[in-house]
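User: hey, got a sec? need DUF600 domain-containing protein folded
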Amino acid sequence: MSFDEIYLSIAGNMLENIQSKDWITSHIDVEYYGEDALEMGGGFKTKDNLFTSFKFRKFDRRIINDFHRLHQMTIENNFSKWNRAKFTLEPTGKFNMEFEWDQALFDEIERLNNE
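Assistant: Yep! Here you go:
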């Protein structure tokens, strides 16, 4: 699977869960804890500036696999490592993918793993 295919899969999953025709932006925030754990948040904003959070239990499970696969591919291709990501989607189909390394998050995960 290519990066573009993963991005299309994420966007498709988001579109299936946007409950408004008047949305202007949507995003998913990811905290990556390891190969077997990640946390997601996000939602969409309407033209009336109302924000609705996604109910991830309604998402297809592939969204989790997509972010795990994306993490694995970025590591394999020597892109910068990340433990936070944000995928932003607009109704036009334009999207943005941001990756971030949060040392404090990494330190907390390491501390909990060593307890």
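Quick note: The mean pLDDT is 92. Let me know if you need anything else on DUF600 domain-containing protein.
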